[in-house]
């Protein structure tokens, strides 16, 4: 085990014509991030020639903007089957959706969250695959299969809860790819940018164990888990995390696990739980050469205003700068491993 304490200098965000977005919070204005510029033939992208229709979901009246799609109240609450279901025959966080208007014009999107408010279902953290945003109106919605081509060779699986996947963390893999374009992401889930992962919002350590057979082989795994166990015992969270690592390393002995120390949170009771869990885990991991500790939480705490600088207003989830720090630290470690 190696414990990485890194001095990181954050460079200002560069500007380019290629942009991506994450909501600062559901329904709030968008925050702008910019992609690093790679040669066109080296960019990860969708191959629209591979499009296959999975299911016709019917016609819907939609209110559309950059970041949300609001379904007319006539359709009621349609979000019930969504939460981490694995069938792509219905609306699903992992799915790709094609909408067609009365002029037979097509648009494609993914979505990162769903809520039900004022008798309307609202999809948020929308990613338009071709960057053109349609007008509100009546649309046929199809679920489709579309190949996403990655150009990297170092396989990485990001495992965790909402801090690995939800809201701005949807961009974690995109930021990682910007820092280390030779990465190739794997997992049974898919984020709004098309990258596979293994993050599920609200997961406790036992829930990661329950779905561990879905986690594929990878050269590297990042593991950021445990904060949702804060109302349970530290002993169970500790044992479950150790078991997650043991199962993965037994199945894939050539792999390396990067244990990410907990992101600080403004909930002091939760934060104390996370700190105690981290201390026990890092002490145990010292004897394991297949596990490295990446001190994400320590790096964030170096800034006395960490909650304002790195977190959303909920005091728990990363904002765009928090995601950037995570990605940069992880990429530095993998680069050092590959030398």
The rounded distance between the terminal residues' Cα atoms is 17 Å
Strand content: 25-35%
Query: Could you describe the largest sheet, including whether it forms a barrel?
Result: 8 strands, mixed
Which secondary-structure class do the elements indicate?
alpha/beta
Number of helices: 8
Number of domains: 2
Number of strands: 18
Radius of gyration: 20 Å
Domain SGNH hydrolase-type esterase: 159-323
GO molecular function: hydrolase activity, acting on ester bonds
Protein name: SGNH/GDSL hydrolase family protein
Keywords: Hydrolase, Signal
Provide an overview of this structure.
The protein is α/β, with parallel strands linked by helices and 339 residues long. It folds into 2 domains: 3-41 and 150-338, Rossmann fold; 47-147, no CATH class. 25% of the residues lie in helices and 30% in strands. The protein has 8 helices and 18 strands. It has helices spanning 162-165, 172-179, 205-210, 234-251, 268-285, 296-301, 306-310, 320-338; strands at residues 3-4, 19-23, 30-34, 45-64, 68-71, 96-100, 106-110, 113-117, 120-124, 127-128, 137-149, 154-160, 183-185, 189-190, 196-199, 220-224, 256-260, 291-294. The strands form 3 sheets. Strands 1, 12, 13, 14, 15, 16, 17 and 18 form an 8-stranded mixed beta sheet that branches. The protein has an 8-stranded antiparallel beta sheet with strand order 8-9-5-4-11-6-7-10, with no helix packed on it. A hairpin with a 2-residue loop joins strand 8 and strand 9. The model is unreliable at 4-37 (pLDDT under 50). Residues 159-323 form the SGNH hydrolase-type esterase domain. It comes from Cerina litoralis. GO terms for molecular function: hydrolase activity, acting on ester bonds.
């Amino acid at each position: 085990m190696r414990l990485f304490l890194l001095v990181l200098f954050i460079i200002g965000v560069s500007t380019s014509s290629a942009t991506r977005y994450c909501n600062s919070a559901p329904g709030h204005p968008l925050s702008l991030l910019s992609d690093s510029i790679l040669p066109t033939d080296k960019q990860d992208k969708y191959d629209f020639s591979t499009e296959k229709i999975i299911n016709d979901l019917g016609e819907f009246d939609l209110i559309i903007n950059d970041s949300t799609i609001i379904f007319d109240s006539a359709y009621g609450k349609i979000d019930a089957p969504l939460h981490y279901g694995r069938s792509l025959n219905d609306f699903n966080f992992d799915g790709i959706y094609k909408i067609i208007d009365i002029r037979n014009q097509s648009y494609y999107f993914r979505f990162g969250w769903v809520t039900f408010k004022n008798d309307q279902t609202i999809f948020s953290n929308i990613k338009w695959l071709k960057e053109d945003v349609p007008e509100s109106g009546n649309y046929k919605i199809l679920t489709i299969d579309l190949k996403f081509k990655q150009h990297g060779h170092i396989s990485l699986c990001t495992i965790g809860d909402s801090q690995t996947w939800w809201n701005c963390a949807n961009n974690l893999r995109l930021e990682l790819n910007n820092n280390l374009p030779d990465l190739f992401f794997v997992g049974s889930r898919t984020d709004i940018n098309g990258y596979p992962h293994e993050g599920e919002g609200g997961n406790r350590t036992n829930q990661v164990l329950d779905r561990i057979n879905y986690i594929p082989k990878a050269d590297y795994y990042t593991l950021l888990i445990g904060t949702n166990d804060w109302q349970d015992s530290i002993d169970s969270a500790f044992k479950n995390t150790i078991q997650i690592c043991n199962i993965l390393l037994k199945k894939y002995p050539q792999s390396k696990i990067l244990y990410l120390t907990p992101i600080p949170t403004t909930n002091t009771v939760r934060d104390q739980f996370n700190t105690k869990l981290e201390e026990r885990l890092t002490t145990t991991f010292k004897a394991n050469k297949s596990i490295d500790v990446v001190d994400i939480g320590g790096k964030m705490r170096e800034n006395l205003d960490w909650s304002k600088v790195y977190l959303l207003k909920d005091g728990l989830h990363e904002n765009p700068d928090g995601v950037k720090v995570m990605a940069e630290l992880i990429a530095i470690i993998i680069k050092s491993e590959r030398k």
